[in-house]
Amino acid sequence: MTADTAAVPRRKLIEVALPLEKINAESAREKSIRHGHPSTLHLWWSRKPLATARAVLFAQLVDDPSSFPDRFPTEEAVAKERRRLHEIIEQLVVWENASDESLLRRAYEEISASTDGNPPPVLDPFAGGGSIPLEAQRLGLEAQASDLNPVAVLINKALIEIPPKFAGRPPVFPGAADAQITAWPGVTGLAEDVRRYGQWMRDEAEKRIGNLYPKAKLADGSEAPVIAWIWARTVVCLNPACGINMPLVSKWWLCKKKGREAYVKPSVSGKKVIFTVSHDLDSAPTKENDGTVGRSGAVCIGCGAAVSLDYIRSEGQGGRMGMQLMATAAEGNRRRVYLSPNPDQETPASVGRPEDVPSGTLSVHPQYMGAPRYGLTEVADLFTNRQLWSMVTFSNLVDEVRNRIRVDGLSAGNSEGDSLERGGSGAAAYADAVATYLGETVGRLADMANSLCAWEPIAECPRHLFSRQAIPMIWDLSEGNPLGSSSGSWLALLEGTRRAFGSVAFPRLSQPAFVEQKAAQDVDFTKFVLSTDPPYYDYVPYSDLADFFYPWLRSSLQRIYPSLFSTLLTPKREELVANTLRHGSKTGAQEFFEEGFFDVFSSARKGIDSSIPTTLYYAFKQTEITKGEESSSGWSTLLEGLIGAGWSITATWPVRSEASNRMRSQRSNALGSSIVLALRPRPDTASIADRRGFINALAEELPRSLKELQQGAIAPVDLPQAAIGPGMAVFSRYAQVLNDDGSRMTVRAALARINEILDEVLAEQEGDFDPDTRFAIAWFRQHGFDAGKFADADNMARARNASLEHLERSGILTSRAGKVALLSPSTLGERYEDKEYDPATDPHISTWEVVMHLSRALTEKGVPVAAALLSRVPESIDRDLCKELAFLLFTIAEDSKRTQVAIEFNSLGTAWNDIVAESRNASTQLMLDT
């Protein structure tokens, strides 16, 4: 079915309702999983959580039950079936279930049933870190991935293309296959060879460069492996009377663990700076004197002279920035031992630069590339000479170990065959495959073994460079020991690879996958389902960052992938970002991005399988998605581009890798969020609407869509953004929407109208509540839980057919001394501290009162107690209205900046489905007990 086919496609789950809070909670939890995650194979920036990608793909392919009125004729039947499908998603997103064969089989069967028994292949043309194609493969689908960046292509090959090709094979390392009598299922044989040949590389490296990494002599005369050498950069003090090599240090602390505190204590003797390690807390660094470098410059420890950052930059650019050892961190008895500098540790680092260092000039992007401003303009400049010897040695060993694996494979009885790049699967291709993972480990070593890694005084280990999406300048650096066994060493990185292979993260390997290097503008989209995370307008240019890894990967793997590594640095010209440095001006950058974006998605619209929506991720700042006129160029450009390319937007879902209870203001940037958009090709015959017709259509359709959204497990904080989807579906179904003066309505204006109608719909929902609750909502909107005048409250109550006397008797408010205040959940907690509230015996119960008591119970004692309370609420109280009230109160509290109150009602709305489900069990148990 092509984009212009007239048949009306079935709605998919992603276009109606999602268990969003469960997806977000598991995505946030996934961020804390370090060991065994596929991301440990090689770093890529802003990877989408696997849980999110898995849930989105399933919901993108599976039909919503509202598409089958003959099978689900009532709203209750639709809601029940939708809940069943949501429960599958809620199980799928749990990390521990990622390799549950039974669950994955159920998921595939649902996908197959919704695609007439023939699930289509999934394509991601901006594959990046590979989350989307990896999860497509996990769900039993054919996955195809492409990216312009060679580093991303290599990552995807290692994730989805290589493992199925060599699944089930025993290792070829001599003696390894005999180490176990059972079979080698999945990638276990491949993983074993990566581990064993990686160990061989480490041992061989020690033979060649072990003299550069001496052990440390401890106070008792024994020796211990060094974990890291901690250095300070230096420049000459500007004061002629001083002239020392002044240390540039951001912190003096080495360890802040209680009872183990250690720090560097500097002193000056003549023209020489001396560093000693001290444990004396009486003279320990304070916040005021911890380090010498700040945002505006540095202070000399010898004379106190101030030095500007401009001077430090000029010294760095002139090659006059030096380094001095401050301390050595060694392995002790279950603790780190910190030693003052001595020649035995400092001298081995004074080695010349190796000759065969790969070349590569870094970008000077002012936002992300801090180090080049200090003279570190080449990739090799980001490493000490000793680190360069280590990197070159391990890089050269990749090609040596590849030949060794090939020979061992032939000895194990495998035929030679073609290379991996030519599609082979014999000994040569297998050697290429194992070497690929070892080459990626060299890339990961670069992230840990460079001169921009700071020492972490809490964890007591080196930090890696890319803790954020930038290459910043740092002053005191930790030079890890690649030949050791601690954090950042070759063996520690190799262990991370082994855990990734052996974890639940790798899918069952029944489906082959295909990865190619290609610009998205050149991709053939025919017959694919599209799910992708495209570049974000003028956000991070990943090619600039990837140039840090590329020379090392090219040096290690060019013989295996000659086409992939044919250029000196990563391709830039076709990278689809609005980069003013590349395109001469802001206007030129914007034109390049908009034209390229239009070309990609126009081509996709013509070729994709239009019976299934496309999904697209967009990372946003909270200030971009707001009510009123505030909107970012990135978000507006994205929507305008999609609509202009012939797409209709059918859903927008806010997905996060941070918990929703970390809420600050919606206008802050507190939540690390993306929006997942569901898209459909707009028919070429789409009509034109005027402003009034658009607004009328919004008013007619948004109430039903809002109710469907609320049926899912969505947090109140996410509702406004999710509601934009149905609103944009109305706007983008038209070829154009015309204003009263005949001009075209912009996306920015449409978003403002959608938010206006959303507010009206939420306000209209108040009419469904009982009079007591309607009064309480109105009073809460004006006063929150603060007191107001009795006369104002009395007038408001009478207008809603309620009385203050009845409201006080009902436990909704207090009225004293001419003041009226609603009873907050915390106040109710105090009132019922010594007694239980039983809604079954409350003669004046209202929806408001139920929600207040549920919020109190949830906050104080959690879901089980809230569920038990709900099980006692009479059936006359509509559970759906209770949920709507929680959503409404969140919105009111947030708009009035009552943050803590908003958090409490957001928590209630988020947990509502769990409370209802558990309340049914509580009710059943109650009947059994009576």
Question: Can you give a write-up of this model?
Answer:
- The protein is an alpha+beta fold.
- The protein contains 28 helices and 26 strands.
- The strands form eight sheets. It has a seven-stranded mixed beta sheet with strand order 17-2-1-18-19-21-20, with helices on both faces. Strands 5, 6, 12, 13 and 16 form a five-stranded antiparallel beta sheet that branches.
- The N terminus and C terminus are likely disordered.
List keywords for this structure.
single chain; 930 residues; alpha+beta; 7-stranded mixed beta sheet; 5-stranded antiparallel beta sheet
**What is the global morphology?**
globular
Low-confidence stretches: 1-6, 621-631, 659-672, 924-930
Gyration radius (Cα, Å) is 31 Å
How many DSSP-defined strands? 26
Query: How does the helix and strand content classify structurally?
Result: alpha+beta
- Helicity range: 40-55%
How much beta, percentage-wise?
Answer: 5-15%
Helical stretch tally: 28
Distance between the termini: 59 Å
Main β-sheet: number of strands, strand sense, barrel status?
Answer: 7 strands, mixed
Could you tell me the mean pLDDT? 89
**Strand order, largest beta sheet:** 17-2-1-18-19-21-20
